[in-house]
Amino acid sequence: MTDVKHMKWWGWGVEGVGFHHEDKPGFAPFVVDAVGIDVWREPVPPIDFSEVAVPPSQAGAELIDALTLIVGPEYATVDDLERVVHTYGKSIRDLIRLRAAILPRIPDVVVYPADESAVQRIVDLAVATNSVIIPFGGGSNIVGSLEPLPTETRPVISLDMGRLSRVLEIDEYSGLATIQAGVLGPDMEEQLNARGWTMGHFPDSFTYSTLGGWIATRSSGMQSDKYGDIAEITKGIRVVQPGKLLVVRPIPSSATGPSVREAILGSEGRLGVITEAVVQVHRVPEKREVIGYLFRDWDSALAAMHDINKSDAAPSITRVSDARETAFSFSTSKASHGISGQVQKALFAFLKRRGWNLDEVCLSFIGYEGSSANVAHQKSVVGDVLKKHGAINLGKGPGTLYDQKKFDTPYLRDFLLDRGAAADVSETSAPWSKLKPLYDNVFAAANKAYDEIGMKGWIMCHLSHSMHAGACLYFTFAFTHDGVDPIAQYDVVKSAIQQAFIDSGATLSHHHSVGLEHSQWEVADISEAGADLVQGMFTAVDPGENLNPGKILPTR
Amino acid sequence: MTDVKHMKWWGWGVEGVGFHHEDKPGFAPFVVDAVGIDVWREPVPPIDFSEVAVPPSQAGAELIDALTLIVGPEYATVDDLERVVHTYGKSIRDLIRLRAAILPRIPDVVVYPADESAVQRIVDLAVATNSVIIPFGGGSNIVGSLEPLPTETRPVISLDMGRLSRVLEIDEYSGLATIQAGVLGPDMEEQLNARGWTMGHFPDSFTYSTLGGWIATRSSGMQSDKYGDIAEITKGIRVVQPGKLLVVRPIPSSATGPSVREAILGSEGRLGVITEAVVQVHRVPEKREVIGYLFRDWDSALAAMHDINKSDAAPSITRVSDARETAFSFSTSKASHGISGQVQKALFAFLKRRGWNLDEVCLSFIGYEGSSANVAHQKSVVGDVLKKHGAINLGKGPGTLYDQKKFDTPYLRDFLLDRGAAADVSETSAPWSKLKPLYDNVFAAANKAYDEIGMKGWIMCHLSHSMHAGACLYFTFAFTHDGVDPIAQYDVVKSAIQQAFIDSGATLSHHHSVGLEHSQWEVADISEAGADLVQGMFTAVDPGENLNPGKILPTR
Question: Which enzyme class (chains A, B) (predicted)?
Fold first, then answer.
């Protein structure tokens, strides 16, 4: 097959890489307590692919031939595994469905265009043959942006952008790089780093997500405090639309009417296929430090993040876990690393002597970048704020560990799923004044949902992405499912959390986008009139609804 | 009449305030040299309003009655002066037409709604009666966003937002203020300052422009380096549309599909009437300093602005004038103030001794804000960069003067127009690497245009609004007109400059918007496909083209 890399069909990452708990003595007791599962029990592994009944391709020979003519025989395929790999993203809903071989509608053909002109020909062919185009980047989406609608009767083409993976040009004086949309995070950073540059965009999904995917879903990375989110990073965009090419030129800022750039951002394929972008890049910083801190409790942690944001400081990362996520972090420490074992015991004893309640302690990471002088200055300004809130500096050790493990969390879902628990994440942003009630409302909603489904459940949270107007709260939740209809149970929990976001003045998603999963809250979030406006964009570009139909806005 | 304040009908500012040169000894020789005009000659003042033949209102009694029913008799008017005041903005094209009583189509009625529900009723009435709505803020627009199309046969309603002028609420913990759209800059800042807050948005037009106008045109203020431009400042928006209200909730950042917020920004009334916004506000800084610097020449000045931007520094203002604008600044110094008279002579002697060519010196202002410690730190970081580029620190004196005079420039146009010269401004932004060729291309284009019209002309420039990807170049140009068809002459010059922007990879406007004046370059800027997308938004919201028709996109 092609040399485009994909994750394993049934889970996160590549075959052979996964989460292990054997070297983490605190993990088993933590999980029993949280969701009631014994991690030592025999895991139920995913079924073998040979057991999956894959629906046959519904694409006619004429369409396949026409696609083959555009991309060449090795880059247009109806192979079963390829089509299943391109059916879903990696939400817990997706993982459950894959393991249960629930495949009501899968792509009929997967194509790998080599360049923009091939993309244009494929899109035009799709419109001419009334087929559906679903662009595919790294396949890491967790809100249902990639799956064909179950009711789709037209041929479905999954357009994999993996061959468009080059950094084409760096305008070094401006700090702007022209990059093809299909490049995966590590590959892109490697190409940039080789010339001394970085984009500074590191979402949790970094390892298996692409530039085009980030733009199409309004992604945000861990260092967004410094580098901005993808909407701020992206200056120019090229988008293949039916019969034409939309070009947003790389302009720092512009007053040219409603923003076309900001219409493409978050468009999830509904306004065309993003082929290339001009993005802001920065010199790899002379120095980079991530420092760990502890707070007495969530209230003082939130207040500190607020005050740092309102100060003159400019850190690259501001992140703090609530007490439950802090306990989770400690539970995943290796016996031989970080603040674990003897060190952890000594630390806890020290905190106790200071009168801290160990069940309320919150772990925080703050990042600093730039010249050595700037790192020192920022640490000092932030330090003054932290002092007022009684934070304890843990030094660079935990930060280094955080940096090493920061892309590993998604593996945990597969591990838990093997053992009968469903876990996923839901994140939002809200003004600073609304964060505390938002947090309380989400916890209440989740716990009510666990009661409703009658299962033991867990929820934890961290704050990340500080902005002037507010911050992102990121919730991770898990529950033991009944083994009968885990998706129905998941829907109860997830819906309760999302509804609590909207009811608390927060958004349906800060950086995971809408897809199918969140589309029922879209009108509540952007108002009926806002939805009409967005629908107007879709209709203008794609009157035949050939471009990833049904995503973002529910069919109305 | 109403208590809503307006500028004089024929020019900038209120009656009795204008530019005077008598106390500025350097000004007369400068102007003779630049555009060949003797400023001591007898000015030709604007005609008296009684001499203006004002077209009668074309609004029927039924429409007037219905509007009166909504706003009350004193707030719906067909008064001639009111209608002329609401016909144009304040571009040189507008001023020339007003002085020549060129009024092919003026509003038929001016209404002053008291609140959002009145705006909704007016908009719905306009659609029901197939009338045209043109929202009016401070009337400072210079790209033709406010004028009715000359061919308009339907009744034209100018909707003056002046009565919606209150700061409704400040969420102090978040730093977000809810403000009515019709508030003028100074009134808004006064209300905010009274509670210790500032929005930090100070465009040149500040004195006579409104929050709603800033949002509708994508305005940018002098301190955008710190506070962001209006697109970054604005988090929530309420927009009255035909039959409905669009609400963008105040969310710090969101992944909810194409941005509705960024569609309303810059929409110039074509997507409805902006009634209210939630904007970022900041505590009035403890300290604020604007320091003047001199550079040897434009190249070193540009390089320094670039290097400051790429450093770890975070100044609030970065601005530098080219040598010609620097000479202009010196020429407008009062004999008794600033770096003028003896001081100026001593300074020039000093520069000469250092081997500087006085014809190439560039004047710069850099602003610092925040705590005293932050101001000191930023000055030091910026100082290190400036040192490398050989800049000379002039201290706070010139900066204080700049701060006092920063809103005065527009008065100069009326002064020159009284004396036979036409002056206006054109601004853009481009990546850092393109600024030098852009600058050269614009100068070449303007000078070629002056040759073409056979008149003596002048052009000068400053850089302001530094961003990671580039900066704004702001050009001011003036020429002696022939007294026969100054608008035709202006069109030759202005078009040459705008075309040079587009040809040089710059945008048609960084912060003055599109209107009618720039719409011929809109497709070249955002691409044909981009224009189709924007037209799709307009059509979805306003199928009858009742909302400020013809603006942004040329009728196609």
Answer: transferase
Residue B380 burial (CB count, 10 A): 12
**Interchain contact, A255 vs B470, CB within 8 Å:** no
Positions of A marked active-site: 474
Instruction: Give the pLDDT score at B336.
Output: 59
Q: Distance between terminal CA atoms of chain A?
A: 40
Answer whether B441's CB lies under 8 Å from B498's CB: no
Strands B392-395 and B287-295: antiparallel
Interchain pair A430, B513: CB under 8 A? no
Report the run of H or E that residue A164 belongs to, with start and end: none
Residue A300's contacts (CB-CB under 8 Å, 6 or more residues apart) are A362, A389, A390, A391
Chain A residues with CB inside 8 Å of B434's CB?
Answer: 174
Query: Whole-angstrom Cα distance, residue A123 to residue A295?
Result: 53
User: What element of type H or E holds B386?
Assistant: helix B372-388
CB crowding B187-211: b at 16 or more within 10 Å, else e:
bbbebbeeeebbbbbbbbbbbbbbb
- Contact, A540 vs B533, CB < 8 A? yes
What's the confidence (pLDDT) of residue A340?
A: 56
> Rounded to an integer, what is the distance from CA A467 to the centroid of its chain?
19
> CB B367: neighbour CB atoms within 10 A?
22
**In this complex, do B267 and A259 lie within 8 Å of one another by their Cβ atoms?**
no
Beta-carbon-side half-sphere exposure of residue A381 (alpha carbons within 13 Å): 25
Shortest distance, CA B460 to any CA of chain A (angstroms): 21
Contact yes or no for A536 and B536 at CB 8 A = yes
**Given 3-state DSSP classes, what are the helix, strand and coil percentages for chain A, each rounded to the nearest 5?**
40, 20, 40
Which helix (H) or strand (E) segment holds residue B385: the answer is helix B372-388
The Cα of B546 is separated from the nearest Cα of chain A by a number of Å equal to 16
Q: What is the maximum span of chain A, computed from C-alpha positions, in angstroms?
A: 76
pLDDT at A488 over 70: yes
Cβ-contact B248, B236 below 8 angstroms:
yes
Q: Do A537 and B535 touch (CB under 8 A)?
A: no
Residues of B in contact with A124 (CB under 8 A): none
pTM of the model: 0.97
Give me the catalytic one of B227, B368, B474, B490: B474
Tell me if B516 sits within 8 A of B97, measured CB to CB. no
Using the beta-carbon criterion (under 8 Å), do B252 and A306 form an inter-chain contact? no
Distance between CA atoms of residues B135 and A478, nearest Å: 51
- Contact assessment for residue A7 and residue A139, using Cβ atoms and an 8 Å cutoff: yes
CA distance A438 to chain B (A): 13
Contact B292, B405 (CB under 8 A): no
CA–CA separation, B104 and B124 (whole Å): 27
Q: Is the pLDDT of residue B340 over 60?
A: no
How much of chain A exceeds pLDDT 70, in percent? 98
Q: Which residues in chain A have their CB less than 8 angstroms from residue B539's CB?
A: 536, 540
Q: Is B474 a catalytic residue?
A: yes
Distance CA B199, CA B228 (A): 10
Of B174, B262, B469, the CB nearest to A433: B174
Taking the C-alpha atoms of residue B28 and residue B65, their distance in angstroms, rounded to an integer, is 54
Which residue in chain A is spatially nearest to B428 when comparing CA positions?
A: A254
Query: Looking at B232-344, which runs of residues are DSSP E strands?
Result: 234-241, 244-248, 273-280, 282-283, 287-295, 317-321
**ipTM score for this prediction:** 0.97
What interhelical angle do A528-541 and B528-541 show, nearest 10? 140
Which residues of chain B are within 8 Å of residue A245 when distances are taken between CB atoms?
A: 527, 529
Residue A241, min C-alpha distance to chain B (Å): 8
Q: What is the pLDDT of residue A38?
A: 93
Nearest CB among B280, B306, B431 relative to A252 is that of B431
**Average pLDDT, integer, range A507-531:** 98
